[in-house]
From TrEMBL:
Belongs to the CN hydrolase family. Apolipoprotein N-acyltransferase subfamily. It is a multi-pass membrane protein. Catalyzes the phospholipid dependent N-acylation of the N-terminal cysteine of apolipoprotein, the last step in lipoprotein maturation. The keyword Metal-binding does not apply. This is Apolipoprotein N-acyltransferase. It comes from Geomesophilobacter sediminis.
Amino acid sequence: MKMSSRAGYLWALLSGVFLALSFPIPGLSILAWCAFVPLFKATDGAAPGKAFNLAFTAGLAGYAGMLYWVNIVMTTYGKLPLSVSFALYMFLCAYLALYPAVTLWLVRRGENAGISALVSFPVIWTGLEFVRSFLLTGFPWESLGYSQYRTLPLIQIADLTGVYGLSFLIALANVVIFRVLLSVSRKGATYPVRGLIALLVLMALTVAYGFGVLSRPESGPEQQVLLVQGNIPQDVKWDPAFQESTVATYERLTRLGCREPGTLVVWPESALPFFFQAEPVYAARVRALAAELKSPLLTGSPAVEKEDGLVRYLNSAYLISPQGAVVGRSDKLHLVPFGEYVPLAKLLPFVNKMVAGIGDFSPGKSAVPLQTDGARLGVLVCFEGIFPEVARSYVAAGANVLVNITNDAWFGRSSAPYQHLSMMVFRAVENRVPLVRAANTGITSAIDSRGHIDGMTPLFEEATLAAKVHPGKGGTFYNRFGDVFAILCLCGAAVCAGYPLKTSAKGKTKKK
């Protein structure tokens, strides 16, 4: 019996709800494995155009539920009217919804040409996820595989395939589950024997690999780390009148938490809301604190430099030695559009940044690890932690500990800080190095090289987190060769897209 149009869209909406619920919060990761089953039911036998519309609906619902916090950023800190904020939010969700829409359109075209969805859906979905990671500066926020960040035996394959291996596996499972249910409920439907065998084999290999990695204890010297969460309100952060209280807060928390000389102390992104390199009084106090505690101290602060007569502002991290000397600076490489700079500013003179305090930032030039006595630090500043290639470049350059300094105050008490953290887990596993994270308002945490989260601070509270990490060795397949698996999937997607055109052309030739 043919499904009504209204019922089809209700099934599509259910897929969107399942997809949103798969990610933090609430993080019902099990739903990811069947999130697309209602959508497959809605699009079963549908024309490609209809499948596009239904999948767009599912994607719109899913991303709207996942990214609702964008409105908090735009209304609270961007000072946009709610109507304007909502319009921009829906525009972003509509852009992201195009990816599942195009995927289902290509899958249905492929099925009409004889390509099974068991092949086409996981390949196309994964390939387009990869495209989303770099197109229009990239927005790989919560790719499908990130939903499993707590399932340690599954995520270990990220050191081979990145997060895309998990996305592929989940996408394949959705098709198999739908085909199994269809074979039970519909007379004459074929049981997906080969698809089920392929899924079970891949799952078994993934889990076996994961348990093999988890059974190997971490080795090597330990590095004591103290992560400091100052909880400085965003609305006063850049007010010069609060500089004294800001510095005093970080001094107090650091003295209370640092019990052992040589402990690596990490303060968050822009913990010092002034130009550290040009501020004599407060900068001297911070250097003196490192010398007093006999511990290296990493802190976020903007930087300024002149190049060819032009002034460049950078979002940076400074490393201070246990002797109180500044021994290195790391500059943010991947900037936040509309947060740290305005894309196409000359064409959009009416658009302003949402971050107050400084003019447009410029990106850093290269990934340069910062050297301490116990570790070589690759610093990921806020948003750039969601880009695997940035973490890879630091580890390839010699970093054996990744440090994510961030200010997630923008997100309020929403799901976004938890979603942000979930992606950091994969940076550690992909490169087999620990990742420590200091966030202004939380979530501050430490993650070992197998993705285990060792402590999480509460949101919007002053806190410190002490942890011990084992600097990693890197050298994983993913670190050396990057997104080979995702690129292969993208090539497979291109084949799936081109094959129906080829068969259509052959059909026309035969008719002639």
